[in-house]
Amino acid sequence: MSASTKSKKTTGALPEIGRETRLELYRLQLELRYCEKRAYDLFLQNLIKGTSHLSLGQEAIAAAFGVAMRPDDYTFCTYRGHAHTLARGASMEGVLGELMGRQCGLLGGKGGSMHLTDVAKGVMGSYAIIGAHLPIAAGAAWSAQYRGTKQVAVCFFGDGTTNIGAFHEALNFSVVWKLPVVFVCENNLYMEYTPISAVTAVANPASDRASAYGLPSINVDGNDADEMYLTAMAAIEKARDGGGPSLIEARTYRHSGHSRADPGKYRPEGELEKWLKLDPVVTYRERLLKFGFNDPTLKDVENEVHRKVDAATATAKASALPLIADIEKNVWADGSAAWRN
Amino acid sequence: MSASTKSKKTTGALPEIGRETRLELYRLQLELRYCEKRAYDLFLQNLIKGTSHLSLGQEAIAAAFGVAMRPDDYTFCTYRGHAHTLARGASMEGVLGELMGRQCGLLGGKGGSMHLTDVAKGVMGSYAIIGAHLPIAAGAAWSAQYRGTKQVAVCFFGDGTTNIGAFHEALNFSVVWKLPVVFVCENNLYMEYTPISAVTAVANPASDRASAYGLPSINVDGNDADEMYLTAMAAIEKARDGGGPSLIEARTYRHSGHSRADPGKYRPEGELEKWLKLDPVVTYRERLLKFGFNDPTLKDVENEVHRKVDAATATAKASALPLIADIEKNVWADGSAAWRN
Amino acid sequence: MAELTYRDAVAAAIAQEMKRDESVVFLGEDVAAAGGVFKATVGLLEQFGPKRVRDCPISEQAILGAAMGAAMTGLKPIAEIMFSDFLAVCWDIVANEIAKIRYMTDGQVSMPLVIRTANGAGSRFGAQHSQAVENWAMMIPGLKVVAPAFPADVKGLLAAAIRDPDPVLFFEQKSLYPMKGEVPDGEYVDQLGKAKVLRQGKDVTIVALALMVHRALDAAAILEKEYGISATVVDVRSLVPLDTQTILTEVAKTGRLVTIEENPRLCGWGAEIASIAAEECFWDLDGPIHRITTPHIPLPAADLLEDNTIPSVERIVREIRQQID
Amino acid sequence: MAELTYRDAVAAAIAQEMKRDESVVFLGEDVAAAGGVFKATVGLLEQFGPKRVRDCPISEQAILGAAMGAAMTGLKPIAEIMFSDFLAVCWDIVANEIAKIRYMTDGQVSMPLVIRTANGAGSRFGAQHSQAVENWAMMIPGLKVVAPAFPADVKGLLAAAIRDPDPVLFFEQKSLYPMKGEVPDGEYVDQLGKAKVLRQGKDVTIVALALMVHRALDAAAILEKEYGISATVVDVRSLVPLDTQTILTEVAKTGRLVTIEENPRLCGWGAEIASIAAEECFWDLDGPIHRITTPHIPLPAADLLEDNTIPSVERIVREIRQQID
Ligand SMILES: Cc1ncc(C[n+]2csc(CCOP(=O)(O)OP(=O)(O)O)c2C)c(N)n1
Ligand SMILES: Cc1ncc(C[n+]2csc(CCOP(=O)(O)OP(=O)(O)O)c2C)c(N)n1
Ligand SMILES: [Mg+2]
Ligand SMILES: [Mg+2]
Question: What is the ipTM of this complex?
């Protein structure tokens, strides 16, 4: 644990964050926040079927990486991936349309909320089976290394994911091959309903294990977009420069339940309230005001994002349902699903 | 790595090793050595078909645990498990008979060299798929804990095994449940033909990862039966007393190839010679002489073990081939293989 | 007889067996304090305490490995794998370890354990949370495989699975969890390996499993009423051991066999049954054997797409009419 | 035409494809410096260097995960899983990720990769190193599945698999590695999804795969010579895509179908083919469809037991005689 106190130093040498970047960090956090809230509303209207896992409260992490990454970098997300997908510039109607099972959805309704993907924007998929995407992200990083493109792969996952085998294999593999991949553990204190502390041998499920892969321990406040941004920049830079992988543990909290079905009753009293005070979007706004941004500027941004979400919602609602005839399309590269001649 | 230097202290508080125990450690190492050599000879005579993975050079580890364990403790081995099976008192003709595919074999020829098992002696199986037996050993430890029997499970595996997911899951799980299980990594420097250093992010594949599970780092000379014995006693005691799991890394070397098929050409020049000088059986004999055992006593032991191996060989050779009619037996508890009525 | 949901029948069976046998323990992810993500095990922690009902990390290999190690040393574990799709992350423990150890050790090791898992489609969860994978399990020698369609069978067959000395994979169809049905009161234990004839007909024998049993019954009713086609419906219930006697007898009576599988087409359990019928009651067949399966594709997520992918009542009616006409 | 072993044909195909396409890379355990535990990839490291031919830790999930991530970003990886039994430790990556991602993303992601693996019995390695698991792969929508019986097919079909834009599981029968056969010189690429009629007969159509093709041919020769039974032998070669045309045509001609599978009985690929024949050429059948498979048990290790477990030439002869008589 002594190593973890050192972690903040890694951000020490980095440049200050410019005003434009700060505003972009705010704007992006708002986009994720408002869009997730809209997704929640659409549920209540029964316009979204199936399940859904919101990132409410965790937006600073996705936003910081969204701003820090190069357009051709790769993102790998989990089922809780709406925010990370949007943060790379995927179309909002594409996201909402997919949740609603419409033709305009990123996956035409085939993937659903847990599998958002937008290859054109570098979003290489959302994976719903815990741990699988860590080695896959390593593979994309390997490909970038092999092709010499200086692309970086960023892979997001939760605290609970650190206890599955694929985590271990991916970390060791990536370090041995010195791959340009950044592993980002969003520690929101819970797996589904079980506190991570009840099922994990160490206090910090990711950073206390970094040394097992010869990596420095990095702990960061996942609700602080600035700190996240600087940490992201450092890790991405390191990867791009051939310095190999990083493992970042960002502490945060999800405001809603694990998924649509979860009222979150397992939370001790007062826990949610405490974390609501640390709401990344609210606290970032306060910081911007302190840093000399004026209220009308921020209101403009807020209104702009509201309009964007409304427009995306309208487009998605207006979009047609997928065609039943398309069900048996795109199993194979030739577009078909034929397993026989 | 600083923690690893501390490891030897754990053995400091332990009682001296008695003369009888020392002789038993010698005897047992000889048994494993001579029996493995015999297995090799039987190969050359084409009496053993299939593959086989010898523990030549690594005997001190299995022998030390064999002496340190209580009769009702559980052993879990790998395909390289002849030594660990014999060290618990499994019959030698049962082992050789199994390698030769005879009726007297521990498994009647069904399991073969990679699956030696003798439940009556606490040998709960040899597992040929890397990593699987670590969580299974944890389960046996859980059962002992649940039943309150104070039994301990000991699980042997190689350096290469530390890079597979099941290793990680088993370690975390065992610590969280505080299970009476001792994980013993025999680091013989190679997976099959690839040096472990070429594929592992840390120098000590097991002990450098202990901290990832909140465990102390334990490094021990796997070719020193005394040191191994004291380390084993300490870890077993801790487990039996409710202190939870240990992870031990024992450094050693295999004198022969990975398996029957392997001439071991990937070894750098001089490496084998260096390790042959550290042969655990030879060096232990020298130590015993220094400690005042006389040569005739040791010769007696050696002759006795030779006789035992010869007798076991003869019995196994004389044993009938398994019955073809038994092929479809023992899939189910009722003895049958019926999948339909 | 009380009315219970399919979901509550799970907890009822586990509680019944835990009460009578202290060696029965239960472990899984979010199963204890939270009562399971499908709420199928609510109340067990309260009733049997944290020593016997245990929450686990997201470590499926460790969960099933622990269950296996416990089963071979005197306990009778029930392990939950939350969604059957996740069997893939611990498939080695299931297919190579649990299934084989008794045979490999020539009978030295016993493996009395149950793996319960939520199987199948209908919840719009997409391709990684909706698969029907009962054929994965059927394929592996050494596993028994059960998939109930009714709350009473959930209770009776789960209890039987827990008492069985061999490893049983117990597939609960997740969209059936809210379904209600009569369940015998008091201790209730059924028998593995018995199919049930739910309806007797003359023209065709429909063999189905789990969710598909309900669709088969609905289709049979429509076929009868609207098209005068009279169908036998057999609920397989247990794929291993397989009640070939009942199936072959019923096929022989009608001369026609149609299987209805939720699993994707290739190497589904229906193929196995078709191959048995094509060999053993070939001369009783009056026409081709027909399999109705989910097409051989990953499952799409959107409700409209999902509903048009797994076999529907309309499709069953349509295809059986085509077969018979 | 040169004579090559089945083993050397593997390296020849990989070398051929690596030479023409720089995006082809190869990874696995002990495959580079050591040339593979079956020596099937000797020389590739020397020829193509350590950037393209890579040794890996014992981390099958990482190996296939890395292959998948590389395949979706422009490379064409060939990954080796040393023994097909080990597919179980990375089954999630195979069955849930590699197989499904193109469909789930509605075609956004491509998955041009090959997983090569040593499959099947005959080496006395026991139940965890001898399984024939081609049916595991066939069962999963989104995977192509190939299993060659001859050195020429190893070269031609492996080259085709590498060029194929979809994921291919390539099963090499490990006891065939030393087998020699004529292999076309120079660039040689075959086509996936084509069965081959190796022998034309009148009385029965035998459909076989990999090692079983050789036993089928031997059995056919004996049946002809000693019993006057004339058999067609079809080498399936590719389970997905499946050449149902060739199979059904040949079955229709003889009116009899016998499948010979190395995989254990339940839900083997033969069941699928039997079910297709029982539906689509039912009226051409002159008698029951018969499947010869490994019994539904884990494989025993001892030579005598192993030899009497997987289908032998004698058993094939005996059972076909019983069928035909
Ligand atoms: C292999 C596997 N096991 C279990 C699950 C069910 N599951 C879905 S999300 C989840 C909790 C994940 O926790 P964490 O990694 O902390 O991510 P979070 O949901 O908190 O973002 C679980 C257990 C799964 N999807 N895959
Ligand atoms: C999952 C899995 N992958 C690969 C193998 C093939 N294999 C057998 S032994 C071995 C090397 C194991 O190395 P280590 O753990 O160091 O044990 P050692 O053989 O040195 O005792 C490998 C790769 C296997 N049996 N299981
Ligand atoms: Mg979490
Ligand atoms: Mg080793």
Answer: 0.98
